[in-house]
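Section 5: illustrative case.
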């Protein structure tokens, strides 16, 4: 069953067409790597999907609803590309993660037992238990990203969208981060759309590849991408192999 479907979508900034005739659908439990050159429209596509921009043409259905009218925001966890965060803000990791619950909370105040349980689970899943009482200003880049994802998943969203979360991470931390997301996808059945530049490693973790360059160049499983002659001619065999490479 599809969680998201996009049909013949086009979008312009002023008169310049950025997205052109895009159609695809995402099923519950998919883990999609959204890849493409700089300026290929990845962030714009995410913003249209989330209802932050209105398409010029076509339809988007998010949980069966037009995103412009979508109300159940807690069903989606979203980590935008540049998350502005004052590193001197005097809050601990646990406090930052618990902020993710506020959108659902009716009255401010203490968290009840089930909310405390959700906070604990997000902290465990993103592997930040040992630093839960550390101030966020004292974290490394990798720890910081994991805390932001924990905040985005504390509501137990059905769909998690992350826009280039690994840009500031070193390769080893990045692999651990991708692995944590894969656990979340497998164990909680969270559907994930991950915008990334890491075409050399995403194939190890994600189940599908969406390659965008204004239009969709490829959408499907990595297995199909790897065996596609068309993709071999489009990218060249070396680049195709790099994207396919699962390092195992
Ligand atoms: P990507 O995420 O793949 O790098 P973007 O979706 O950010 O691509 O941008 C796609 C294109 O749209 C780029 O050419 C970019 O310069 C242009 N663009 C992005 N934001 C705006 C804006 N607010 N106004 C006009 N053009 C924009």
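Designed sequence:
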């Amino acid at each position: 069953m599809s969680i998201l479907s996009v049909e013949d979508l086009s979008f312009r900034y002023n008169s310049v067409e950025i997205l052109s005739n895009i159609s695809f659908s995402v099923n519950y439990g998919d883990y999609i790597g959204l890849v493409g050159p700089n300026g290929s429209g990845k962030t714009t596509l995410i913003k249209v999907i989330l209802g932050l921009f209105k398409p010029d043409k076509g339809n988007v259905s998010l949980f069966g609803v037009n995103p412009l009218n979508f109300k159940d925001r807690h069903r989606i966890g979203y980590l935008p590309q540049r998350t502005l965060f004052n590193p001197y803000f005097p809050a601990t990791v646990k406090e930052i993660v618990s902020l993710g619950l506020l959108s659902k909370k009716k009255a401010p105040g203490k968290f009840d037992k089930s909310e405390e349980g959700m906070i604990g689970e997000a902290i465990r899943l993103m592997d930040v238990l040992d630093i839960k009482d550390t101030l966020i200003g004292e974290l490394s880049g990798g720890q910081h990203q994991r805390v932001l994802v924990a905040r985005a998943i504390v509501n137990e969203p059905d769909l998690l969208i992350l826009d280039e979360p690994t840009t500031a991470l070193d390769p080893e931390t990045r692999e651990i981060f991708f692995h944590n997301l894969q656990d979340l996808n497998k164990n909680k059945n969270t559907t994930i759309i991950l915008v990334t530049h890491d075409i050399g490693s995403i194939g190890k973790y994600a189940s599908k590849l969406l390659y965008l360059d204004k239009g969709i160049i490829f959408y499907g499983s990595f297995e199909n991408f790897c065996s596609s002659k068309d993709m071999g001619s489009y990218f060249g065999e070396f680049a195709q192999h790099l994207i396919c490479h699962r390092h195992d």
